[in-house]
């Protein structure tokens, strides 16, 4: 099973999605500024991916919040703290850190060009032969220059949808959640852009 290291953007997107990392989408009226934790976790290792997902310690520190509806005004979004600990404790996501001189040196080399979390992801992916999940253009460019395989949020979600055979209505809600609660929108140049836009449009029209 392929290992994938997630940067902060991808962590936040998957977390905001709701159903991918837990069995329920975000509640419509969560308590204001409450830490959002998955309320119903799948069984360990059953996230619907053919990947082992890893989050470096630096990325865990950077992935701080998603947006959620305010309990007093459903039209207003407020910050809600991301809590990955239940997912890590359930072995659904694995926390990792830089190991050895090679990874540390790679991190130092690229930390002047990338955020610390992205630099850690790059060093780990390059050293261990893992895939790197990111939506950041500088990270993508650097990774491709060094032969590191990139996977983006839309590709992760499409893989999850295909693997779990989730119906398009539910997938559309997941994509809408990511756009609304993580403020992520796929680039037009991505291979699955048209698939994403088509499904999100179906939510708006329903």
Task: Describe the model.
The chain has a five-stranded parallel sheet with strand order 5-2-1-6-7. Strands 3-4 form a two-stranded antiparallel ribbon. Helix 4 crosses helix 5 (116-128). The protein has helices spanning 8-17, 57-62, 85-89, 100-110, 116-128, 137-145, 153-164, 168-181, 193-205, and strands spanning 2-6, 51-56, 65-69, 77-81, 94-96, 131-133, 150-151. It is 45% helix and 14% strand. 42% of the residues are buried. Strand 6 (131-133), helix 6 (137-145) and strand 7 (150-151) form a beta-alpha-beta unit. With 206 residues, the chain is of the alpha/beta class. The chain has nine helices and seven strands, in the order E-H-E-H-E-E-H-E-H-H-E-H-E-H-H-H. The protein has a single domain, classed as 5'-nuclease (Rossmann fold, 3-Layer(aba) Sandwich), CATH 3.40.50. The termini are far apart.
Dominant shape:
globular
- Helix percentage range: 40-55%
**Straight-line N-to-C gap:** 38 Å
CATH third-level topology: Rossmann fold
Q: Please, what is the oligomeric state? A: single chain
Radius of gyration: 17 Å
Which ranges are low-confidence, i.e. pLDDT below 50, for 5 or more consecutive residues? 23-39
Q: Order of strands side by side in the largest beta sheet?
A: 5-2-1-6-7
Helix/strand structural class: alpha/beta
Quote the beta fraction.
5-15%
